[in-house]
Design a protein that fits this description.
By secondary structure, the protein is an alpha/beta fold. Helix content is about 35%, strand content about 20%. A 7-stranded mixed β-sheet has the order 1-3-4-2-5-6-7, sandwiched between helices. It starts with 5 loop residues before the first strand and ends with a helix. The structure holds guanosine-5'-diphosphate and magnesium ion.
Length: about 190
């Protein structure tokens, strides 16, 4: 897809601040530091739109980026950050749950996992959740540039087994390996909605 325009629209802490123009939304979720911002930036071919950072857990807002005036990338706060208080985690859960369960214009959820590690129980829980709500999803296993060809094969096999899904694309935000597959899925879902 040719990106003509990508811009930040809103950082929301409550559903009333979500955009109201009913454009299709693609949500990105995954544990803190998994490479979520890097995935979004590399898909768009920009640097620094969705902020990348080495201090995980900083983003506690739902951030909306409008792409080509047509659809949104939605950056959900990363989960599983140990230093966040129990209360903050609870608030996080409620906001995300509300977004995923009730957002009508959500056409695709992209769950990001780290190709170097076995997906965690929280990752599996997120995937089960998406399935439970019958939300179309794609798992993107990122950072494959760090793996050898053999490790890549094993990583994919393990991720499929642990997450109990075939719906996984391997990716690298550095080499942009897998970018066509991810965009194909996004584009299909965006057009399906229109
Ligand atoms: N080698 C490599 N590093 C990556 C990749 N994606 C993200 N990173 C690094 O992982 C760290 C966390 O990335 P970030 O996008 O901020 O993660 P987020 O917290 O999930 O948004 C940063 O140091 C990135 O440079 C990738 O595909 N390959
Ligand atoms: Mg981020």
């Amino acid at each position: 897809m040719k990106i003509n325009n990508a811009r930040f629209i809103a950082a929301a802490t409550v559903p009333t601040s979500f955009p109201k123009d009913h454009k299709p939304e693609i949500a990105f979720l995954g544990r803190s530091n998994v490479g979520k911002s890097s995935l979004m930036n590399s898909l768009l071919g920009v640097k620094g739109l969705a902020r990348t950072s080495s201090t995980p857990g900083r983003t506690q807002t739902i951030n909306f980026f409008l792409i080509n005036e047509q659809f949104y990338f939605v950056d959900l706060p990363g989960y599983g950050y140990a230093k966040v208080s129990k209360d903050a985690r609870h608030e996080w859960g409620k906001l995300i749950e509300k977004y995923l369960a009730e957002r009508e214009q959500l056409v695709l959820s992209i769950l990001i996992v780290d190709a170097r590690h076995e997906p965690s129980p929280l990752d599996l829980q997120m995937k089960s959740w998406l399935q439970h709500f019958e939300l179309p999803y794609l798992v993107v296993s990122t950072k494959v540039d760090k793996l050898s060809a053999n490790e890549r094969r094993n990583s994919l096999q393990t991720a499929k087994k642990v997450l109990e899904t075939e719906n996984i694309t391997q990716y690298s935000s550095i080499t942009r390996d897998g970018i066509k597959d991810v965009w194909d899925v996004i584009q299909n879902r965006v057009t399906a909605k229109q």
